[in-house]
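Quiz preparation item.
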């Protein structure tokens, strides 16, 4: 039996299915993988460019480099993979998505129950009083040369809602992990499952479907492993489910 059919059988026979997504699901939307060795990010180290240390101690460099990554992410559109997951949620076949991505593409595609364990780039907040603003407020201030951008309320420094290197994991991580307590099947899409603590999440569930271009450390305990383009695979899974209705 082919892997798509096997994955669909597993999804249809599970009480609760969740998806866990990483950078690989967004590469077809033109977003380079932070950790891939080729392309855009060879010129800067995102671990450094998007770090709390940079933001606090060298804001002028942060707003030249790290901030540019966030701007790029805000201009991209969801692809067929994001859309398939949103439809599967709408149809009731998956309960939601836990994502390592900060590109907002699951939300843009229409997914409702999304846990963004590395934060998001829709909003910013004041590090002193906590006041929340929309991302374009930061864009305006930076374009006017206000570096670092400051809170209108208290004058504190504004920062993006992304989880930066040096930050704690947000509430979404523990809430997402809680969702997996009663989940039977986890569909891992486009994650190499090498980044802690997200790489522990597959151990919460009985069944695993892994869709990733390259092998992962969890392949040997997965029920279905598909090393192919995730946009195509998720689209086929959606089609197969629709065909069986
Ligand atoms: Zn403030």
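Solution:
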């Amino acid at each position: 039996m082919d892997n798509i059919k096997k994955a669909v059988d597993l999804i249809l026979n599970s009480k609760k299915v969740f998806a866990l997504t990483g950078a690989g699901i967004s590469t077809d939307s033109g977003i380079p993988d932070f950790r891939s060795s080729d392309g855009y990010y060879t010129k800067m180290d995102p671990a450094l460019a998007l770090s709390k240390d940079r933001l606090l101690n060298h804001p002028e460099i942060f707003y030249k480099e790290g901030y540019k990554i966030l701007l790029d992410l805000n201009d991209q559109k969801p692809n067929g993979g994001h859309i398939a997951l949103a439809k599967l949620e709408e149809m009731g076949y998956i309960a939601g998505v836990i994502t390592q991505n900060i590109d907002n593409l699951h939300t843009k595609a229409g997914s409702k129950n999304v846990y963004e364990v590395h934060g998001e780039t829709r909003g910013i907040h004041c590090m002193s009083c906590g006041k929340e603003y929309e991302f374009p407020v930061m864009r305006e201030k930076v374009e006017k040369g206000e570096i670092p951008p400051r809170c209108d309320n208290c004058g504190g420094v504004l920062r993006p809602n992304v989880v930066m290197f040096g930050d704690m994991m947000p509430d979404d991580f523990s809430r997402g992990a809680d969702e997996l307590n009663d989940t039977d099947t986890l569909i891992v899409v486009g994650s190499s499952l090498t980044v802690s603590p997200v790489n522990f999440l597959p151990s919460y569930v009985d069944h695993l479907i892994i869709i990733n271009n390259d092998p992962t450390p969890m392949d040997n305990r997965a029920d279905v492993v598909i090393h192919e383009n995730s946009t195509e695979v998720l689209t086929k899974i959606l089609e197969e489910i629709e065909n069986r209705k």
